[in-house]
Amino acid sequence: MRQWLRHAFHIDPPGPAEPTPAELLPVDWVCLQIARRRLTTPGLIVLEMSRPLNWIGAQTMHFMQPGAWALLNDRQFTGYRAFSSFLERRGSMEYMCRRVEHFEEELARLEREGGDIRAYIAAHLEAVRKQAEADAPATDEPAGHEARERR
Question: Where are the domains of the chain?
Answer without folding.
Answer: 20-136
